[in-house]
Each structure stands twice: as C-alpha cells, then as structure tokens.
Amino acid sequence: MRAAFIASAVLAFLLAPVSPAAANACSGIPSDFDGDGRADLAVAAPYTTVGGHARAGSVTVLYGMRTELRLTQDSPGVPGEAETASSFGSALATGDFDGDRCADLAVGVSEKDRSRTGADGDGVVQLFHGSPDGLRPGKVIDAGDLGRERGSGRLGAALAAGDLDGDGDDELVIGAPGLDGGAVGVYGRKGRKPYMITQRTGWVGQRELETDQFGGVLATGDFDGDGRAEVAVGAPADTIMDNGGQGSVTVLDVRREKASLLTQDSPSIAGLGEAWDSFGAALATGDFNADGRDDLAIGVPGEGLTDNQRAMDYGDGTVDVVYGSSGGLRTATTEAWSQRSLKGEPRYFDRFGASLAAGDLNGDGDDELTIGVPGENAVQVLAGTRSGGLTKDNNLLITGEGGDFGAALATTADRGLVVASPGDGRLTLLRGTAKEGAYPGVRPDTAKVLATGTEHTLFGYTLTGSSASR
To answer: Which PROSITE patterns match (predicted)?
Structure first.
C-alpha cells in the first residue's frame, strides 16, 4: 500500500483525545474527520494481514483525499487487538454521532469472535470520533449493547448513519444479517436505549426465514421531507414466494414505528420477483429531482434480461428508483433502469446495480446516480433533473481495467466520484464539472489513481462518502 504506514508516535498523536473547546473548531462538513473544511475518505480493506493475523482487516483514512493513515485493531488506543479473519472494515459509515460538528467514523468488524469453528462471527462495531487532530478511538458496540445476547449474527456487516429523531445529530444503524433472519440495531437515539428491530417486531410484521439476510444492506434518507430520516433495510435473500432469493427492502420509520415493504411484486415496480434476483443488494439515497425529499435507488444485480439465463448466474442486473413525496416513498412513479435503455449491452455476468452512489456531480442542485457494473468493469452515470428526476439523456458509461472496477462507489462533496477496484486494490478518482441540466457532470478524462492497496486485501471493499452501497 502506498505510504500507509505511519510511526506509532504520529498515530498516537492523531488518535489522541481532544478538549471540548478544540472540538468547537469542527467544520460540520460531512466526512470531515479533522475539521479542516475538506472532506476525507475512509477505505476498507477487510482482508489485510495485521500483526501476522490473516484477514484481520484495516481501514485507510485519506485526510483531504491525500494523507493516508491506516487504522487497525492494533492501532494505539483502539480497544482489543487484531485477530485472524475478523474483517475489520466489513462496513463503514460516517455521521456526527456526538453533536460536536466533527464527522465520526463507524467501522464494522462483522466476523470478530466465533462461538465455534466454522460459525459466522458475532461481530462488533468500533467507533472513532472526529476532532481537529483527526480520528480518535471510541466505544466498541456489540449485541449486548443493543439488548441482545451475543451470537453468530455478523453484527456490523452493514452500517448507515442518519438523524432519525430530528435532534440535529446522527444515529447509527447497524445490520446483523446473521441473527436468525437478520436484525437492525438503532444506536444513539435520543431518550431511547439502543435496541434491535427484526422482521418479527410487531410493527414490522413480516415473515422471517433464517436465510433472509434482513439488515445485510442499509441506507438512510428523509423520504417524506419532515426533517427526520427513515431507514431502508435490504434483505437481498428474502424469500417472498416459494423460490428463494428474490429480495426485499423494508422502509422503517423508527419514530412513528411504521414499516413498508418493497419488492419487485409491489405495485408499479417493474419486473417480477424471481429466485436469486437479489432485490435490495445495494441501496443509495439522493434527491434526484430537487424537491427537497430523498429518493431511493435499489440495486437488483441478479435480474436476468438476456435469453437462456441459467439459475445462479450472476445476472444482467437492473436498478429501481422510487421517489419521495410528502407521504414517503411512492411506487407509482418508480423507474426501472438497465442497459437495455442506456449505453452498453446487458450481459448475464454484468451485475448492473451491484453498487450505487448518489451525489450532485454537476453542481446544479439535484443529485446524479452512479451505478456499478463490476462484471463489465464499468460504471454508469445518470443525470438528475428538476423536471422529472433521473434521465437517460447524456447517460455516461465509464469503463476501467480489471479487478471489479465499480464494485464500490462513493461521491465527494466537491463533485468527485471515487470508483473502487477491490480485486486489484485500486481507487480511481473522477472529477465533475459544473454544468446545469441533464448532464452527468463526471469527466472520464479526469480519471486518476487516488490510492492503491496491497494485493488480495480487498482494498476498496467499501468506502465512505455521500452515499455508499454497503
């Protein structure tokens, strides 16, 4: 990895606690961990060998998108120690969890601790708090902190952050897809102890099967514009009919305790729920029509479009986009996107929609949608508009080199798009250009290698940013 190793003394300084007075200097900019007014990026490499422990995992923080600092469970001040196959960096999320205007970082360690050989990990989440001196270690969260017994739940396999109660700071949402049929933890909600929500929770009221993977994918967004975020929960292996793996997305309003279920069999959502479609395998939220309410993009990377599709093939892939309204997400205006209507050609191994990211890449006030097509080593960018949302006009197909280019995506506050190739351990940065209207903004000729990691570490497995897929 490029200059990722820093002397322990420097690490200790960067991770040191900061006084409350100094914390007031934080910028409030999303993903700004050190308060210097510039967005930072965190990059997971969950298969990194640490202290001789294979697949212990690491997270590289790019301060100002330049200076690299590597975090592991052996970093100074981090509780515990690196362990074999614990996958530190299985998921990432940023948010202001303590209200000090510094962005904080949550790191999933989903495979940490196993009750027996061959079992899934119990999992924990490691918090790091932002400060003017950079990230400093915080609390470790396990299932016991969420009111459940520890077990093979893979806690921390997915993470998201959002202001669920409207108090101005963010809550942390934690996926535990291996806990029975899956569960979602809510941590930090004002006036409420941390707790878990499952499909069997009374106000959710869904059938639960052990293989559903409820909570395997998470995103937050204010879909009704009331100033409080809702939680979109992907269950990509949810069995809706007799055949498994169709997938579902459940939208949770934790304040009102209301839930709504989205599948490919929901009214006005294109397609049919079929085995191994993996509806909900990726999620992203953004305001694609600039109406002040978030919209939800749902990846369906297993959807088959070409003839003679075989069971268990990867899938050509599609993406469904459901728009927000004063009453929340409305399926009546749902769009379905695939390479049948965009640049490119659908093929059964493309996995179009395996990753998603949203952000304003052209600076005109509405968000663009970036879709990963890792089987094609490509990303597709759709422009948002104020006259109907996403459009195929001027859609852009950007191809890269091997290594699953497009397997993870992130947008930055300064109109940047980061594309990961975790198979090769490489991050590519593309810059956007200010141009109002139906333009993707991103310029392929600006592509440059932002950072690289050691081979076989899955550097770039997941990223922080305005919107992430895991």
So the answer is: FG_GAP
Q: What is the pTM of this model?
A: 0.93
Q: Which strands make up the sheet holding 355-359, listed edge to edge? A: 355-359, 368-373, 378-383, 391-399
The 8-class DSSP code of residue 91 comes to E
Q: Which residues, at least 6 apart from 4, have a Cβ–Cβ distance to it below 8 Å?
A: 60, 68, 69, 70, 453
Q: List the one residue out of 279, 439, 419 whose CA is nearest residue 360.
A: 439
Question: Which residues is 425 bridged to in the sheet?
Answer: none
- Neighbouring C-alpha atoms within 13 Å toward the C-beta of 236: 25
CA 187 to chain centre: 17
Spatial neighbors of 79 by CB under 8 A, at least 6 apart, are 126, 137, 140
- The answer to whether residues 466 and 359 touch, using CB atoms and an 8 Å cutoff, is yes
Q: Can you tell me the distance from the alpha carbon of 284 to that of 199, in angstroms, rounded to the nearest whole number?
A: 21
Residue length of the chain = 470
Which is nearest to 321 in space by CA: 292, 283, 348? Answer: 283
| Position 450, amino acid | L
DSSP, res 28? -
Give the whole-angstrom CA distance, residue 262 versus residue 273.
11
Compute how many other C-beta atoms are within 10 angstroms of the C-beta atom of residue 326: 12
Strands (E) located in 202-257? 217-221, 230-235, 248-253
413: exposed, middle or buried (Cβ count in 10 Å: 0-12, 13-18, 19+): middle
